[in-house]
Amino acid sequence: MSGAPGNLFRIGLVQTACSKEPSENLEKAVAKLREAADRGAQVVCLQELFRSQYFCREQDVELFRLAEAIPGPSTDVLGRIAAELGIVVIASLFERRAAGVYHNTAAVLNADGSLAGIYRKMHIPDDPLYFEKYYFTPGDLGFLNFDTPFGRIGVLICWDQWYPEAARLTAMQGAEVLFYPTAIGWHPAEKQAVGESQLDAWRTVQRGHAIANGVYVAAVNRVGLEGPSGCQLEFWGNSFVADPFGVVLAEASRDREEVLVVECDRRRIEDVRRNWPFFRDRRVEHFGAITGRWGDSAK
Q1: Residue-range domains of the chain with CATH
Q2: Most buried one in 22, 61, 100, 252, CB count within 10 A?
């Protein structure tokens, strides 16, 4: 951990709708970062792939033009804003690593504007209107923590949020908050029948990560309708912060742009883990089978 932070720290989540013009989305993100900082946020997370509409709704080779290097144009802008405001910024970007090698990557800009590091999304979905395997190479950096002046944080991205192993391995490195930049919504053919249960499952699994690991969890999603009629996605917002026992401290709406700023207390982590000592009671000597694809493959 950099410096000697006190017990209290404030995190910010930026939930917005996205236009078709990347420069407009970047300008909006900068304005929302200023708003979050004005309200006292010290670590601010933008939603997944905030610079564009969610392009993975279709498979189009021309959309690779949206990708950029890291460091690159977006991290240059966000680094300057981070340094000006004295905040940490978490920004999910479409990374061009090399010709033909692209990642869904979260860049962490420290409060002095420097690039603290990157996390590359490990779990890549392939579902109707979520054709991410066409665009993204799975991450190869593992599960990471980042030291900031305000505490130690872990970053995972969207589809990662369904995997307890990802949360566990990130939390075990000392993270006090798990951030999940996200782009999730309803498929038009599914909302009426299962929309509410999908949203409830999304919220519940992440609250479960908070409880099982005794950490704060912060998920930030986008809002708005994107795509042509018949194949639209309706992003459901509901960005939220849960405390180390899964209590939802703040939650955004389903359909409005919002900036959440939530005060966290690292003493709450200690208190929860003393009373619910899940890390103490883990039987790690019997967990080897978890590395197999299915039960019989690990024998």
Answers
A1: 8-266 (3.60.110.10)
A2: 252
For residue 129, is it left (φ>0), alpha (ψ between -120 and 50) or beta? Answer: left
Would the pLDDT of 2 be above 60?
no
Half-sphere exposure of residue 208, counting CA atoms within 13 Å on the CB side? Answer: 12
Which residues are identified as catalytic? 48, 121, 158
The number of residues in the chain equals 299
pTM for this one? 0.96
Q: Provide mean pLDDT across the span 159-186.
A: 98
Q: Which two tokens stand for residue 68?
A: 């950029």
Using DSSP's 3-state secondary structure scheme, residue 10 falls into strand
Q: What is the pLDDT of residue 299?
A: 53
Q: Which two tokens stand for residue 16?
A: 């917005």
Helix (H) or strand (E) holding 108: strand 101-109
Quick one: which of 290, 291, 298, 242 has its CA closest to 269?
Answer: 242
Write out the two tokens for 19: 């236009």
